[in-house]
Design goal:
single chain, three-stranded mixed beta sheet
Length: 103
Amino acid sequence: MSTPGENDATAAIRDAIEATERVERLIDLTVVDTGAGELVVGARIALAADSELRDVVLVIDDVEAAVRVAAPGAVAVYVEPAVVAPVVDLETNTSAIVIMSAD
């Protein structure tokens, strides 16, 4: 979903990344217009915690392809993956996490 103040190219890039299969969410997006209609795109995406390396590579390739379709002027696309850690149950007792000393 585009955010207020975004230009059409940035909104299209955001929508394309968010629609890419296996992208949990878009964490950060930077689009720089270098002039003459050329764009440099940097994106940080969240992936599932159980993602395997080959899947990460495939998702990055899919994101890059989706960006280039959404914005043909994208001359450079940089994608940084981040693994989304599972939510910690706040009801867990500290003794379940901390190893107690024997002394």
